[in-house]
Amino acid sequence: MEQITGAPNVVLIDPLRDERWDRFVENHPFGWIVHLSGWKEMLERSFPHMKGYYLIVEDEKNGRIVAGLPIFQVKSWFTGKRLVSIPFATLCDPLISDDKSTAALLEGAIELSHQLDADWIEIRALHANMPTEHPRFGRVSFFHHHYLTLDKPLEELKTSFHAKAVRYEINKANKSGLHRVIADSKEELKLFYRLYVKTRTRLGLPPHPYCLFESLWDVFVPQGALKLTLAILNQDVAAAQIFFKYKDRVSMEFEAWDFRFRNISPNHFLIWEEIKDSYQEGYLTFDFGRTSIRNVSLMDFKRRWGSSVVDLPKFIYPLERSAQFSENDSNLTYRIARVVFQHSPDLISKTLGKLLYKHLG
After folding, report:
1. DSSP structure string for 147-210
2. How far apart are the first and last CA of the chain?
3. Would you list the DSSP string of 6-66?
4. Which domain holds residue 159?
5. The domain spanning residue 90 has which CATH number?
């Protein structure tokens, strides 16, 4: 353990060596797969420009962890040096317990940013009641989170889906001859990735590098926390989706689909099959991940599954930096980049994606 200078109640730990950490995540109400020590292992294996620092507040009497904040140094000459909690996490929270520990962790993060010469701090939140009036952090919100509570029998749950946009599509997919395969090898992961690159290129988005998915597979499949499903028609992969499964929730994190099969709705097929599995396995929540507030069509798609929606805010230090943040979709450079990706061959798209993700997080 290492004391944070200037934050006397906060210490740094290595979660890969400190057995308390994963137990703490398991027992904390906000604990999610991205908080686990395996996420640090996965990120640092995949991205040399990232290094994780785990700040904790301990109980003075028994040394038990009472609050924690995983935060990663992201170094880039292009996007700047910053601290992010947590890179590539669509859903995450500071693992806080009360206002006192929250304030201590935020001060610890600020002190760490000074020590590491970071330009700014970005803390993402879902459930955590962060102090929005904290004088040194500003709040921005460009994403929404859609989720489905699995608290009704399946057929009753299905009636909450939009009749034409969802239920009809599920029925059509079921009549099409599609069948689902649950992946158990990296050969199937490679099938997913080839389709994923094509999907992201078609959408004008950079594909994550394959090393990210391989690391996710290596770390979380043995724990039963990652599931890859493929919708197959004859010998073709019509769609594929990656889900995180941890504690009482399942989250749809990555998806890919072959545009040729759009008329038989393979994505609807896979989502409904996973919702059924999640319900039968006793999970309480099915997450649809995060969505840009400007992506109206995707928000409509998720809303039609009967989902609830909440904000996914970010808290930015220093305060004046938060005023400079703008939603990517409204940025001219971003729009130009999307056009470039849409007209790039797959090999070029993969290469550009690999280069870009050396600066993102």
Report:
1. EEE--S-HHHHHHTS-IIIIIHHHHHHHHTT-EEEE--SHHHHHHHHHHHHHHHHHHT-PPPPH
2. 26
3. TEEEEEEE-TTT-THHHHHHHHSTT--GGGSHHHHHHHHHH-TTEEEEEEEEE-TTT--EE
4. 145-310
5. 3.40.630.30
Helix axes 210-220, 37-46, angle to 10 degrees: 150
Question: DSSP string spanning 132-151?
Answer: TT-TT-EEE--EEEEEEE--
Q: Which of 219, 227, 222, 214 is nearest to 186 (CA)?
A: 214
HSE-up (13 A, CA, CB side) for residue 101: 19
Q: Which residues contact 22 (CB under 8 A, 6 or more apart)?
A: 15, 36, 37
* Cα distances (angstroms) measured from residue 345 to each of 8, 199, 259: 53, 12, 16
**Placement of tokens 């979380």 in the chain:** 220
Same domain, 109 and 161: no
> Could you tell me the two tokens for 245?
């499964």
Q: Is 186 exposed, middle or buried (0-12, 13-18, 19+ CB in 10 A)?
A: middle
Task: Kindly state whether residues 115 and 258 are assigned to the same domain.
Answer: no
At 87, which amino acid appears?
A: P
Residues 111 and 184 in one domain: no
Residue 135 preceded by cis peptide, ω within 30: no
Per-residue pLDDT of the chain (361 residues; tens, 9 = 90+): 677 766 678 999 999 999 999 999 999 999 999 999 999 999 999 999 999 999 999 988 888 999 999 999 999 877 779 999 999 999 999 999 888 888 899 999 999 999 999 999 999 998 876 655 567 888 888 899 999 999 999 999 999 999 999 999 999 999 999 999 999 999 999 999 999 999 999 988 888 999 999 999 999 999 999 999 999 999 999 999 999 999 999 999 999 999 999 999 999 999 999 999 999 999 999 999 999 898 899 999 999 999 999 999 999 999 888 777 655 444 544 554 555 556 566 666 666 666 666 656 6
What pairing do the DSSP bridges indicate for beta strands 120-124 and 82-85?
A: parallel
